[in-house]
Write a structure and sequence with these properties.
TIM Barrel; 8 strands; globular
Length: about 260
């Protein structure tokens, strides 16, 4: 929500690019949101600075920039984690380690109010001033984004059922865990036939089900290749990586400038 355009972009067949926050720092999230990304993901699964309190402040920081979707990768498939993120104002969630169609269905239901799901009605951060509660509920059920992650052989085996699960909007491929599970070398998965075949299988199943596929990528070049292959969502580096690259570049430029006459 927050006036974001992710679903519009996807409906037009255009890819969206997202920033990725591991620190759980609201100021960092605000910087990423203002940088021009279509969305910013707060990584509650692996972000060491992200907890149930900091995730709220990070969501609010992202939502301070109109048109940018605040997404949360929750720690696991869990009604509390999903509901907490959405009640805090997230535009959607990314649910990790989904291994079956039934688990995907549960994720979708957790994102929707009854009668379409089992999300508990609580805080309504995106309710408009002149909007009835019923209208808000119906709009939220349409606009909230639910992406589920495929990261294992078991998920690949049930990919058709996962993609057909009710109320999910797309698949997000976690290439590192998927590679480990398939015994593909982590440094070579972008070119490994096993990984690319798995990705193509996911793309085919998702297309048949009418949902989108995102791919986490490894770096900007890799993400661009996955988008060319069919992904409609990617990321180009998380906050700590981007900071490290910028810091190293600045230091290099400083030393180079010292050597100039």
């Amino acid at each position: 929500m927050n006036g974001h355009s992710l679903k519009t972009l996807w409906a037009e067949g255009q890819a969206a690019v997202q920033g990725w926050d591991m620190t759980g720092n609201p100021e960092v999230c605000a910087v990423l949101a203002a940088a021009g990304y279509d969305a910013v993901v707060i990584d509650w699964q692996h972000g060491v600075g992200v907890n149930e309190h900091s995730v709220v402040e990070c969501i609010r920081a992202i939502n301070s920039v109109s048109g940018v979707a605040a997404l949360v990768r929750v720690p696991k498939l869990d009604l509390y984690y999903i509901g907490h993120a959405l009640d805090a104002g997230a535009a959607g969630v990314i649910v990790p380690m989904i291994n079956s169609g039934e688990e995907a269905r549960q994720a979708g239901l957790a994102c929707r109010y009854a009668p379409h799901g089992c999300r508990s009605f609580g805080n309504t951060p995106f309710k408009e001033a002149d909007e009835s509660l019923q209208t808000y509920v119906e709009r939220a059920n349409q606009e909230i984004i639910c992406l589920v992650m495929i990261e294992t052989r078991a998920a690949l085996a049930d990919v058709d059922a996962i993609c057909r699960a009710e109320h999910i909007d797309g698949i997000y491929v976690g290439p590192f865990d998927l590679s480990l599970n398939m015994q593909v070398r982590l440094r070579s998965w972008p070119e490994d036939p096993l990984h690319l075949e798995a990705f193509d299988k996911i793309l085919k199943a998702a297309k048949q089900a009418g949902i989108v596929v995102g791919h986490h990528g490894m770096n900007p070049e890799c993400s661009a290749e996955m988008v060319k292959r069919g992904a409609l969502l990617c990321q180009v580096g998380h906050d700590t990586t981007l900071l490290a690259v910028a810091a190293q570049r600045a230091l290099h430029e400083y030393h180079a400038a010292l050597e100039k006459p």
